[in-house]
Amino acid sequence: MATNIKDYSTTQSSNTSLNTISVAEGMLPSNLNNAIRALMKNTRDWFNDAQWIEYGDGSGAYTSAYVSGTAFTINGANVTSVYHAGRRIKVIASTPGTIYGTISSSSFSTNTTVNITWDSGSLSNEAITNIFIGILSKTNNSLPTELISNAQVATDANIDATKLGTGVITNTEFNYLNGVSSAIQTQFDAKQATITGGATTIATDNLTVNRALASDGSGKVAVSDVTATELGYLDTVSSNIQTQLNAKQPLDADLTAIAALSPTDNNVIVGNGSAWVAESGSTARTSLGLGTISTQASSNVSISGGTVTGLGEPSANSDASTKSYVDQAVAGLRTRIIAEAATTGNINLSNALEAGDAIDGVTLVEGDRVLVKDQTDTTANGLYLAVAGGAGAASRDPQYDTIAELSGQMIVVNQGSVNDNKIFLCTTDSDGSLGSTAITYTVITPSNSGTVTSITAGTNLSGGTITSSGTINLADASTSVKGAASFSSANFAASSGVITIKDLGVAAAEIQADAVITDKILNSNVTTAKIADLNVTEGKIADNAITLAKMASGTDGNIISYDTSGNPVAVATGSSGQVLTSAGAGAVPTFSDAAGGGTDWQTVKTSGFTAVAGEGYFCNTTSAAFTATLPAGTLGDEVSLVDYAGTFDTNNLTVAPNGSEKIQGVAASLTVSIERAGLTLVYTDATQGWLLKDK
C-alpha cells in the first residue's frame, strides 16, 4: 500500500495502490480522480519539506532497527554511500519524537550500521517510525561555484589550516596562535632588549650556588665567600649586631652547670658546697633543713586545690576526716526524701523529664525531683531533676548520684494517680557502682496489691484464714464472692477495686443449664470473643434473628457465595457493566464483560493513552501526533480507533503494542496516516497478536 512518495515502486506495474485507492487493472472509473488527488497530496507533502529525503530502495522503504541511543541498522542493504559521515539526518520515533543529528560513521556487514551525533536527545529502544536524510550529500555536484562566503560558514566550523593562504601553514603552526591576547609585534616591542653592563655575567654564565651576590672589581655581578645560609642568619636582626653581643651575659661556669642539669619533675636545684645539683623533694628538704610537713606550723601550710592523701581515722576533735568516714557517718542520719512524682513504667530518659511532660498524671515543672524506678535497664533507675522544656535529657539529682547515696534511702512520692503518698525504699547495696549495678525499689506503704493470707476483724473483710470454702464479704455487705477455687486470674481481672470477668472466663461448667436468658444479656454485649467457635448452633438462633445489621462488614460490591466445603466466600467486585458468570460446580463465580455487548465508546482523546479492551476511542490529533497503546491482549479482545478531526494524515496516530506483543504479526508500532481513518483491532494469540478487523 503506497501512502507516500517513498512507497512508490520503481517497477511501474507494481504501483497498484495509492493512499488505499486501487489503481490496478479493472479499477473503478471514480478511482482515477481519487488517485490523481492523492498523488497531488503526496507531491505537496514532499514539497513542504523538500530539504529532507525519506530514502528507500526504489520499491519501498528500508527496514530500520534500534541498536543504541546513538545508532541504528538498515537491514540487508549496503547504503553506506547514502548514509555517509557528515550528512544530516532526521529521525522520528515515539519516545524522543523528532530529533536531528549528523552521521558520524556508517559501515556494512549483512546490515548497514549508522552512528549519529545528535543535536539533542537520543533514541529509545522502540520502533523507529521514519528516517530522513539531508537532500545534499558529499557527492552532490549541484552546488553553485563561488557561492560560499564567510556568512555561509558556521561559527563553530573547523577549517583546516592548510586551506588558509598558500596552504603551507600547518595545523600545529596555526594553533600557536591559541591564547594570543593582543598584537604579537606590539608584545615583541615591549620585551627586554639584549642585556649589557654589570648584569652580563648573569646572562652568560651560571653563578656558584648558594652564595651571596656582590659586585667584583670590574663592577660585574659576582658571588662572595658568604653563603646564602650564612646570609640568612641576618634575618630579623633589628640593630647593630656587635652592640647587641656586647650587651649579653658573659660566659659563666655556674650558669653552665645549671643548664647541664636534667629538668626532672619535682626536683629542686640546691648547692652542695662544691656544685649545683638537682635533688628530689625529700632530699632537698633535708638539704635545706625543712623537715616534713607534719612539723610545720599551721601558719606555714596553705593548700589551694589538689587533695590530701594518707589520712588515718580521726580520733581527736581537731583531726582531719576522710570522705569515706563522713559518708558512713551520714548514712546513719538519713531521713525521707520528697519526690514530686514516680514513674509507672519504662521512660525515655532523653526527653521524658522536661517541664510540661506528665509522669503518673503529674505535669512536671523544671527542678521537680522524680523517682525513676521502672526502667528496663535497672542501672538507669534513681532520682532525677526535671529540666526545662526542650532541654533534652535530664540529669541525676546531684545529691543522690552515687550508689552509696541512693542505698537505703526512703522516697516519699508527693503526687500521682498511682504512686501518690507511697513510700519507696532503695534496696540496692551501697558497695555497687553507678552504671553497672541494678538500682531497685520496693514499696513500703500499704497498697491495693499483694497476697492476703489471713483476715483480721475490723477490716472490710471478715472471717479467719482464707480457705477454699470460705466467704469473703466486700464493703457492700450484699455482695460476696464465693467458691475460691474458681476465683483465679484465668477467669477474673481486678482493676481499681473492681472485679470483672475476663473474655471466655465463664466456662460452661460455671453456668447452670438454661440459666442464661435474654434478660440477663445486655444489648450489644455478646461479641465474637465471648462465644467459643462452633458453639452457636441453629437451635440457638431464633427465626429471622440475624439481620443485615448483625452481619460482619464486607467489601463494597462483593457478593457472598459458597465453596466446595459449603463455607461462605466473597465474590470479588467486578467493573461497571460486567455480569456475574458461573464457572460451574466447585468454582466461585466471577464478574466478566457481557458477551456481544458492543463497543463502549469513550470521550475524545487529545493525547497519548492506554486503551482498554472492549472500548472505542475518538482520537483528535489536531494539536499534535500521539500514541495509543494497546492493552495486554486476551483472545477476542477488541479496540476501536477513529480519526475524530480528519488530521491523521498531517499528525499521525501511532498504535503501539503492549510490551513485546505484536500487531499484524510484527513486534512494532502501527502508524495511521489516512485522513478520517477508522480501524478495529482484535487480539488473536502470541504469534499474530492484534489483527486489523476493519481498515
In words, what does this structure look like?
11% of the residues lie in helices and 23% in strands. It is of the alpha+beta class. Among the domains are: 5-48, no CATH class; 64-134; 325-443, no CATH class; 451-530, no CATH class; 600-694, Sandwich (Jelly Rolls), CATH 2.60.120. The strands form 13 sheets. A seven-stranded antiparallel β-sheet has the order 3-9-6-7-8-5-4, with no helix packed on it. A hairpin with a 5-residue loop joins strand 10 (211-215) and strand 11. The radius of gyration is 53 Å and the shape is flat. Mean pLDDT is 80; it is low at 457-465, 467-471 and 473-486.
Distance between the termini: 12 Å
Main beta sheet strand tally, sense and closure: 7 strands, antiparallel
Helix content: 10-25%
Mean pLDDT, all residues = 80
**Total helical elements:** 10
> What structural class results from the helix and strand content?
alpha+beta
Report the principal-axis shape.
Answer: flat
Estimate the strand proportion: 15-25%
List low-pLDDT spans. 457-465, 467-471, 473-486
- According to DSSP, the number of beta strands is 40
Which strands sit side by side, in order, in the main sheet? 3-9-6-7-8-5-4
Spatial extent as radius of gyration: 53 Å
